[in-house]
Amino acid sequence: MGAVLIEGPKWCGKTTTAEQQARSILYMNDTKRRHMNVQLASMSPETLLKGDTPRLIDEWQIAPSLWDSVRFECDKRKDDGQFILTGSSVPVASDDEEAFSHSGTGRIARLKMRPMSLWESGDSSGVVSLKNLFEKKAVPVETDGSDIHRLAYLVCRGGWPKAAQQKPSIALGRAYDYFQAVTEVDISRVDNIKRDSEKAKLLMRSYARHQGAQVSLAKILSDLQTNTGETMSEKTIDGYLEALRKIFVVEDMRSWNPNLRSRTAIRNADTRYFIDSSIAVAALGAGPDDLVADLETFGLLFETMAVRDLRVYADAMHGSVYHYRDKDGLECDAVIHLRDGRYGLVEIKLGGDEHIEAGARSLLRLKNKIDTDKMNEPSFMMVLTGMSPYALQRPDGVWVAPITSLKD
Question: What is the Cα–Cα distance from 371 to 95, expressed in whole angstroms?
């Protein structure tokens, strides 16, 4: 492609990654040049685009008109690998600016970056490969058997690259710094609409309590009123959540709609998730010891971390992750669906034989509902756990593997 857009939350490593590939760099947010850069983007964009290629334009969304300038320049040069764009928010055009007059299709490829998976941060052994599961080449292996306290720490630390390099007492503070920046600055700066930081904190706390759930705005409003006494309209809540989506703090999961043997109504509501479990931890004001003492909350936030990792691995395999739930209450936490039509079914359980058994039964029930005359049967079924000394396939065909053994 002529250009690549790398987008995702702040602090996840977009600029560092792009710098490793670029041969020249323009930092749009350079405090000494920001005002001039914005002016040039409007008056003489070609000046900003000059330089050895690939040319990195960091935080390009500060001047949204650059999108069309890059697209036009790609058309004119007719060469691949011209530009790398990085951004931590979806841009909003000013009243006198017509940004995105063209989608960039055929010229600009999109790449979403998230906080690091456990495999990327060095906290997973990687002895279980999703690719091998899809290709039916996986074999039983012994795992490192991460203990509950280590797992709680990983959920709280999150996948922020800087935190992965720091000692635990410092690393745990990164998510709180992030939470403060989001609620006090970024949630208003993204579209220049002033929002109350305290309301943002309370809303994110409610969102943290509903990780992995398909809850309506009315339910979130009710939760806010019950737990905090805060009164917000559904329209206001929707506005706050939309701002959080634009800065890649919230990443809800869409539903999966397979061909079924029977006529079963599928719940199509999105499932609520933060892009990283550490954000939910910070919103709740919790730490590793709190999670160990409250296994129900621990399980919810472990699911958020697991979904983050599955999304990272699925992206690397040109796939997407969905959620399934029907009117009968049957659900599947994650369906990894690849471009070629193959898919895997995953239930996420913190641990415990009873929970693993329940997850396996749920997977088998869903498999039996799928009409394999109209679509493939699942490539694999897996209960993804927090702790297990082995990764193995049960006699019923369901794999059980700990998250600290997984990679793409």
Answer: 51
117 lies in some domain = no
What is the domain count for the chain?
2
Q: Which of 116, 90, 155 is nearest to 13 (CA)?
A: 116
What is the helix (H) or strand (E) element at residue 347, kind and residue range?
Answer: strand 343-349
pLDDT of 71-95, one tens digit each?
Answer: 999 999 999 999 999 988 877 554 4
Specify whether 258 is located in the same domain as 401: yes
CB 188 within 8 A of CB 195: yes
Residue 136 is which amino acid?
A: K
For 385: left if phi > 0, alpha if psi spans -120 to 50, otherwise beta; the answer is beta
Average pLDDT, the chain: 93
Measured distance CA(48)–CA(54) in Å, rounded: 13
Main-chain phi, psi angles of 333, to 5 degrees: -65, -40
Say if residue 46 is in the same domain as residue 78. Answer: yes
Q: Are residues 207 and 294 in the same domain?
A: yes
Q: In which element (H, E) is residue 243 found?
A: helix 234-246
Q: How far apart are CA 292 and CA 101, in angstroms?
A: 51
Q: Return d(Cα 153, Cα 253) in angstroms, integer.
A: 25
**Token pair in block for residue 3:** 């250009």
196: how many CB neighbours lie within 10 A of its CB? Answer: 16
Domain that holds residue 313: 128-407
What is the per-residue pLDDT for 143?
Answer: 87
**Are 84 and 199 contained in the same domain?**
no
Residues of the chain with pLDDT under 50: 94-99
Q: Rounded to whole angstroms, how far apart are CA atoms 152 and 287? A: 8
Q: 134-173: per-residue pLDDT in tens? A: 999 999 999 876 799 999 999 999 999 999 999 999 999 9
User: Mind listing the pLDDT tens digit for each residue in 98-145?
Assistant: 445 556 777 899 999 999 999 999 999 999 999 999 999 999 999 876
